[in-house]
Structures are given as structure tokens and as C-alpha cells.
Amino acid sequence: MIIRKSSPPTVGTGIQLKRTAISVAVAASLSGAVHSQPGDADSIEEVVVTGYRKSLEDAMNYKRNNYGVVDAINAEDIGKFPNTNLAEALQRIPGVSINRVNGEGSQITVRGFGPDFNQVTLNGRSLPTADVPVVGGGTDGQGTSGAGRAFDFSNLAADGIQTLEVYKTGRANVASGGIGATINVVTRRPLDNPGLQAAISAKAIADTSVDRGDSVTPEIGGNFSWTNEDETFGIGLVGSFTERDSAAASATSANWNVVTFADFQDFITPDTVLTNAPTDPEALVALPRDSRYHFSEFTGERMNGQLVVQFAPSDRLRMTADYTFAENEAEEERYDVSNWFNRPFTEVVFDDSPVQSTIFLRENADNKGAAMQQTLRATKDELDSFGFNVEFDLADNLTLTFDAHSSEATVKPNAPGGYSRINVGLDMKYAPVDGTLSQAVDYSGDIPIQIIELISTSGNSSLDSAALAALAVDTARAASQVANLRTITQENEIDQFDIRADWELDANSNLTVGANYRSQTNVTDNTAYRQILGNWGAENPGDVEALAGAGILEEFCVSCRFEDFTIGGASLDGNTRNSVVYGVRGNAADIFEALSPAYAAGYNGADPRPLDVTNSDFDEIEEDVLALYVQFSHEFQIAGRNAHLHIGMRYEDTEVSSSTSSLPTARIDWQGNNDFATFASTSAAGLKADTAYDHFLPSVDFELDVTEDVKVRASYSKTIARPRYDNLFASGTVRAPNGPTALAGNLATAEQGNPGLLPLESDNVDVSVEWYFDESSYVSIGLFDKSVRNFVGRETVSESLFGLRDVSSGAEGTRSGAALDLLDAVGADLNEDNLFAATVYIDTLDSIAAAQAEFVANQGADGNILPAVYEQLELDADLSPNADDPLFAIAVNRPLNNRDASIDGVEIQGQHFFGDTGFGITASYTVVNGDVGFNVAGAPDTSQFALTGLSDTANVTLIYEKYGISARLAYNWRDEFLSNTNDDSGFNNPIFVEEYGQVDLSIGYEITDQLSVSFAGINLNEESSRNFARSRTDMQFLRENAARYYLGLRYKF
After folding, report:
1. What's the CA gap between 509 and 503, in Å, rounded?
2. Where is the TonB-dependent receptor plug domain (predicted)?
């Protein structure tokens, strides 16, 4: 804050500021910058507020002088926004919470409505959205597609942003789509800031998580704005570049199966040791398919640019042309160490959750190895927006505005070969020479503990050492399994035209009428590939280095990268349990490039194994929206107090066309115990569906100045939000089961869209009271209620698709059915290995008797197929369905408009500066409630509807700004919330996100009026993220998030 002496300004008399719809925004942006204080007749002490305090004052006055429920965040100066990330800036607005990707704010939730239900505009224009969240995803990103309407704020740098406006109530002149809120990103305009203004900045980013990348990376930006002396012509230019390297350790458990305890008997034997098991055979229990540790290394580059040209040849005419560009490249290399449960279990411990989860699992691992997937994910996001605007004053009280823009957002694959994701499965077989090997996972803590236990039989230490050596990681023994690849492209285009007339009817009344046309097209192209390399049995140990060369892999301790969680010891000792800690790391693209041609040609005497297409969908959604709107504003008095009434009506007519061209799934093969592969048809199938709907969207806002400092508001509006694109897709995607369907808990699943879905419709009521008790201080409390219709629920039905047949059904009269009888006859355990082996024998031998004899000949003392024999069978045989096999009973999940719900809440916010001390505080707290929650004890074969994203949020910022120092310490918190009602596992499992709180620090110092330095620390408390399913035991995703620091220098010309 700067205090200086000046002469009193010359002010005219009789001038009244009318808070009209046109003037409010201008008045709000200018108010609060200068406050006069009493002084003598010749000199007045003028307090000019600058910096962060000015930004808060501008935002406060914007809120105070606007209508409806509005919040804003303003830039402190040219090229100086309060936060480096727009999403993280928005989270300090009450009711706004954010999602983070790779530790950085990405998308926002407002009043419980997730990113897909909030409209984002750029200077009032609808922005296209394209987002393929492959990089930084939870499990494998295999099924991710460009399917949502959410805008990723991490694509936009903060340098060129003047204001973020958040409208929580509907407005007739604002495009529909924001049922939670509409966020308008306002960029700088040169004629609004006359003269020459320029600033350059440079920052060094230090991310404490970096392993092999650059520990310090650059961020540079520049702003330039110029107008001629007559202020009739101006040019604005903004540019920025950011590079960031980071890393993160994470853990996942894929597909928590939910079955009855009676069906759970398929996964155990009479000798299995059970602890705390249910007594009711119909009680539901949950068990995981696997447990994985990951370590990911990220690289990212972001470029932004803006060009604005303005020309005002007269006081009545202003023309603006602008172009905005954003490009964001993101890449992730990920290395896994994981296990996979083949069953039966030898020991199981259950917890006491409503659906009892297996808190500890152990099984024999003599025929297993360490799975070490290598993954590369890479995408490139681009945004191009061209706009043209003309404002013409037809008369002193009538302004005509024409606005047009054409914008495109794209996400394209950016990994070598044109892929979005490359995953190569590797395996290293355990081969102990003395003792029994078992694998286990302990879920009793926040993170699962993977355990490999060697139980010595001889007590001979030399033999134990040999056995332990066989378990050690040796890159020369690494063997390939299967490669999965995917390409995903999303293109979203918008062409929009708007014409509006603003008419000042008299000193107290204004009328706005307008028409808007928007044509939007979203195209998603999603293709999955698979190539069998060394197969699931890893038949060619050493093939990776043999084909790609020594040095392609390096020994790597994955679990050593966890800093906040204790994983276990770093070695294996006889009779001692320790976690799996070591794996390998290598570049998945390089590995695939070396191995793929060799296996396609027939490596090591095998038949050729080409790269196959397993699924391919091309989906296009076209939306044409014609809107007409009218808005009337009137200022009057009630009992001598100023009052304002704003009444609006928006009519929208929407036509939607959904078309698809896909290669549907042609068959599903059984390739080993729990390994299945889908194969796409070679003939494309097309489908098109059209729908149309219209809406009347009224809005009423009323404000009353109870006193000079107290304002009350009441608003009603009707808003809509259109469904996600994937819910509108006409295509369907089939996923193979996680194991033979003859055994409990294994289902083939499918996702299909519904082109006939209608938008969500919400009737919104808001009431608030605001007290502006000082120049920079206020408190407010607001109540809101939303009654929402047409929520998109889900239905899961069991049906056949595309004529697919199930080779593993166990049905009578089939090969797998005969295999069940065979296993019963020979007294073998009913598990995946035995069932696959018996089915192969029946498929390949002349008779069931011959198959039974062959199985008995290869049966071990424990009754199971010998491990070595099973491995060879898995290498030699794939089972394809035939006419005797029944049609697959596929759990098909579809969206439909079948739900209504209500959301209500309270928003409390305020800010205060303590006189001239320089100290201040801002804080907010939001409570959000909904009337429909998720029943975690619900049946796994029944889809549920529940309100997602609902959570309480809070933030508090301590501020000091004086003597050139500007410091802020902020804490942002979000309570636990439900993020999804179906994790696509086939068991209708929810995804809950645990509460998250983050501490950030920002310090700046003005060395001179032109030169300043800054320091920022993000996530100083290094808070981790964790998701779970039906209980906290059922961990789905956990990630450690490290702190990162910014050191910057800024020069203003």
C-alpha cells in the first residue's frame, strides 16, 4: 500500500452513478482503488491501495456492485495474477473446490456440481473443452477417452488474465451449461488500460519430487500493451512458457470384487485359514484382484499466447479482434511392481466393514513372478480461439454489440508411434530352490503392503541364500508378456455469434435484448491395440535385453520412493516376511519398438503375433443451440433505501446429433487362468441418432441496500447442464471378464451411451446478506437451494452384445462345463489354473476320458496341475469360443434420465484488514448437503444413483502487505466426498476421495517501483491423495504429493 500527499481533485457536482447492467462491470473494476481521507483544505492524504490488497478490494466491490450471486478474483497488476494456477486461485471462492492432476489444480467443482456441469467462458464466449486425462491417471488409463465437458484450467497461464468472474446464479445473457456456476475468464484490453504498459517475469520452479529430471525448470512470461495518444488504437500481446519436471510414488488396487461369502468359497480350500469371516453365507465380502506400486516421472511444457487489436475511430464505435493460443504437452513414464491373485488363498483375514473386506490375503506363489509393467503416456492439448467484437452506440442511450468467435480445442496422442499410451508387461519368475514361496498383501494400513515370504524347509543357510538369489531382480532375466496400446484424439469446435442491444430506458431502467447461435461439434477417436509378445506366461526369459540390448532396463527400487508411507524391508530373509521393493524401469516405447517387429515375425520359433485392434470407436456429437434473451433492470427505492430488480428470460432451442462408426468386438478368447483378450471386427458398423429439446430459463434478482453498508439479495433462476459426451455416444465398449465366468465374481462388462439424454434442469433459489463494514472488509452469509431434475442415473442390465460367446462359462454341454466335472472327479481344487488346464485338455484331446487321464498324470500332490505343466499349456493354447458356448451375459451399464435430487447449502465468507498494520485475513466456509447418498452395503449387481462431488470446503489466508512486502499463508481444505458411483469393475463400486488439506505460502518484495522478487511454496505440508471403494480398506488409488517452490523476478516498464 502506497500513501502519498496530493492536491484535492476537481470533482463535478450532480453526477449520479447508475448501476446499470452495462456500467456495473466497469464501475466494479474501478471502484476501491482510491479512497480519500479527511485532511486540511490544502492537502489531502490519499491512500492508493496496490498489490494483493487492491486485488481483494476490486473483487469485493465487484461483488458488492453486481447483481445476483457473483464472486471475482482480480489481477494485482499487469501480468501479475495472485496465483500461478487459475484453478488454485478459484478455490478461495466459497463453494468452489478443485481437482488436482500431478499436484496441480486442474478442474473445479462448484456447490457440489462437478467439472462437467460448470460452464467456462473466455470474455463471455463459450470455450470448447477437450480433455483426455491419461497422464497422471489412477490405474492404467486404458479406458480413458475424451468424453467430458470439463475445462482444464491448467492449460491457461495466469499472466494475461485480468479477472476471473464466477456467476452462481443464472443470467439471461449468459450461455447455458453452468448448473453449478459460469466462470468467465476476462483478459486485458489495451483501450481499457491506455498508454504503454509492459512487464516481464521469470521464475525458477523447484519440484522436490524430481528423480531423474531437471530439479529446476523455467517459467517466463511477458505482457505488452500500447495505445496511441488519441486512445483510438491499441495492441496487447501476452506470451508465457512453463516447463516442469516432477515425479510421484503411487499405489493402486484394481477391481475390488464384491461377492457373497458363499461364492467366496470358490477362492479358498478346506485348509484355508480364515479369521473374522462372516457367518452368513449371503453376506457380501470384498476382495482385490491385485495390488500395485508405481513410480511416475512427469515432464510438461505449456505455452500461452494472446494478441488483441482494438480500434475506436470515434466515440461511438469500438472494434476488437483477438486471438488466444494455448498448448500443453504432458508425458509420464511409469514403472510398476505388482502382484496378481490367481487363488486359492491359504490365509484370509476380514475386517468389520458393512461389506467385509479382506484386510489380509495370502496365496502360494511357487508358480509366480514379479510383474513389472512399463508404461509411457503422452498427450498434447491445444486451444485456438479467434474472436471479433463490435460495439456501436446508435444513440446516447442505445448500444448495439456484435460478437463472433471460432474456437477449437484438441487433445492428440504425443507418444512415439502416434500413441497416447504404451504399456508393456514384463515378468521375472521366482525360482526358489529351497522352501515354499507365498505372496500376500496387508491392507490394514493406509497403503497396502505387498509381501513375498520364503519359508525355508531345510534350515540350510547356503540353500536359503541360493533361493534368495533366485528371487533377486536381474534385468537379464526380464521377460515380456503382452503390450497394450491406445490412441485417443478429441476435437471440440465452437462457432458462436451473438448480437445484443442495450437500451437505457431512463435514469433508472435498462433493457437488454439479444440473440445467440452456437454450433458445437465434439469428435472422439479411440482405438485400442494389443500384441502378444512373450505371452502371460513370459515364455522367453531374457528376451527384452536380447532384442532391445543390454541397458534398456535398470534395476529400480519402486517402493523406496515412498516417503510418507512405510512399505517394508529391502531384502528377503528365511522365515521373514518383507515387502516387494525392487523392480526395473525402462522406456516403454523403446522396449515396444524393439520387441514388436520380432514377435510379429515369429520370435524364437513361435507363430507370428501381430499387433491387433481390440476395440475402435469414432464418435461425433453435434449440438446446435439457438437462443433468444431479454433482460430488464430497474432501480427504485423502498422506504428510502435503494433497491434493484433484474428480470430476465432466455429461450434455447437445441438440436443434437450423435453418430458413431466403430469396429465392434468380434470375440473374446481365454488365454490363461484369468487372462482374456478381446478382438475387434474388421468391418465397421455405423449408427446415428438425433434428438431435440427446448427450454425457457427465467431469472429474477433483487437487491436492497438495508443501510449504506448492509445489502440483502434474493435470486431465483432456472439453469441447465448438458450430459457428458460419452453419455451421448451411440457406441458401446465391451470389457473382458477378470477371470473365468464359471467362477464367482467374474463378469464381462460394457459401457453404452444414450443419445436421447436430456439436460439436467435446476430451479435455484439464493438468499444472502452482506455487510461491508470497512473499506477493505466485509462478511457475508448466503443460503442456496437447488432442485434438480433429469439427473443422469445408471442402469446395469445383463444381456448379450454382438453375438459374443463365453468360452469359460462352465455351462453344461460346453468344454468348460465338462472341465468342471473333470475337476470334481479327480478331487482337484476349483481354481483358475486347474479350470483352464482341464478345458484345454478337453479341447485338444479326443475324449473326456483322455483329458481326465492327462490331467491326473500331471496332477501334483496337492491335487493341482503341476506349475511347469500349466505354464506350458498357457504358452501353447488359447481357447476361442465355439457354437456350443452360450452367449456372454454381459453387465451392460447405460445412462438414463431417471433421477431427481435436491442440494442445499450455506456459504460464509469475509475479509478484513486491520487498519494500517498491513495485516489482513480472508476466509470462507461452505456446507453442501444432498438428499441422495450411496449405500455401501448395496448389491453389487444393482446400479445406484447418488449425488457426487458434495463436500464441505474451507479456506483461510493470512495476509501481510506493507513496506513493499506482500506475504500470504493459505490453507485450503476439502472434506471427503463421493466422486463416482461406478468404477467400471462390474460390481458397481463407488469411488470416495478422502479429505484433503493443503498449505501454500507466497512472499513478494518490491525492490523498486519497477522491480520485484517473489517466492512461493505450494503444498508445503506435502499432503497425499487417497481414494477408496466401499470401505477405507478398499483402497483404489493413493499418491504422494511433494512440495514445489517458485523463485521469481518481475520487471515492470
Report:
1. 9
2. 66-180
- Statement to judge: residues 228 and 356 lie in one domain: yes
Binning the chain into helix, strand and coil, the percentages to the nearest 5 are 15, 55, 35
**Which among 14, 44, 65 is the end of a domain?**
65
Residue-averaged pLDDT of the chain: 88
Q: Which residues pair with 200 in a beta bridge?
A: 222, 1051
Domain identity same for 154 and 101: yes
| CB environment 985-1023: b (16+ within 10 A), e (fewer) | bbbbbbbbbbebebbbbbebebeeeeebebebbbbeebb
Q: If you average pLDDT over residues 356-381, what whole number do you get?
A: 90
Give dist(CA 835, CA 865) in Å, integer: 10
- Is 656 part of any domain? yes
Number of folded domains in the chain? 2
Tell me which of 84-98, 1008-1022, 1033-1047 is least confident: 84-98
Q: Residue 273 belongs to a domain with what CATH number?
A: 2.40.170.20
Range of the domain at 716: 70-424+485-529+614-801+890-1052
Asked if 689 and 647 touch (Cβ cutoff 8 Å), the reply is no
Q: Does residue 944 contact residue 934 with C-beta atoms inside 8 Å?
A: yes
Global model pTM greater than 0.90:
no
Q: 59 and 156: one domain?
A: no
On whether both 643 and 716 belong to a single domain, the answer is yes
618-645 tens-digit pLDDT: 999 999 999 999 999 999 999 999 999 9
Range 315-339 average pLDDT: 95
Cell of 392: 456501436
Q: How far apart are CA 578 and CA 571, in angstroms?
A: 7
Examine the fold and report which residue of 36, 65, 94 is the final residue of a domain before the chain moves on. 65
Which residue matches cell numbers 476490486? 58
Q: Which helix (H) or strand (E) holds 261?
A: helix 261-264
35 pLDDT above the threshold of 50? no
Sign of the CA dihedral running 1044, 1049, 1052, 1053: negative
Q: Is the pLDDT of residue 846 over 80?
A: no
